[in-house]
Each structure stands twice: as structure tokens, then as C-alpha cells.
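Repro:
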Amino acid sequence: MRGRRQARECVLKALYAQEFTEEQMETVVENTMEREELSGDLYAFCRDLTLKTHVNADKLDAMIKEKSEHWEFKRIAVIDRLVLRMAICEMLHFDDIPPKVSISEAIEIAKEYSTDNSGSFVNGILDSILNDLKNEGRIFLE
């Protein structure tokens, strides 16, 4: 398995576990990364993405809600919501990752872990958010 994909899947697992437990996020992250046997740069990337996604969840959710106007937010599949949060967090906080890579990875993870329609749903929401971020000057693409 490719490194960053494994780390992203680890992030998804940690965020998913946090949805259904009252454990501290730090504990969930450490336990998840230990099971996935991540080390070095992948460990740091996984930990950083998980914690930033968790801390910024309300802001990320507001962005998702704005773009999913035809969906009741609470009815969006949990996995889809978490994948969207992760990808938006990457676009906003990880300058070394091209936004199109974040979107592509999110689509593939959604296809693998969620519903048959998740890939196209995630793609639509993220493309729209990326366009807004570019128009607002929050993301600069070459």
C-alpha cells in the first residue's frame, strides 16, 4: 500500500473511532497509528492531519453544509463526512499537497470505504469548495 494513502486511511479510522467513543483524540490517534504500524514521516503526517481535522471540524462542516444544500447534513454518510473534512483540511493546511491530489485521494477512499455513490458525491463537494478557495485567494494553484 502506498504510504500517504495508508496514512490517510489511518486518519479516517481514527476520526471514525472518535465519532463513537468518548476517548481523548490523542489517545485514539496513538492507538490507531500503533495498529497501523506507521512510523517516521507517515506517522507525523497522520497525526498532524488527524488532529487538525478534529480541531477544525466545525469550520470544515460549515464549508460542507454550504455545498450540500440539497442534503440534510446529519444524513450525509459518516464516512463521506469524515473524508470531506480530511480533504478540505489538507487543502487548507498542507501546502505541500496539491489540492487535486487531496481530492483524488478522498474520492478513492470514499469509493473504498463508503457507498457506491460516495465517490461522485465527494468529488462534487470538493470541486466546489476548491473553486471557492481559489476565488477567495485562500489557495493558489500554478
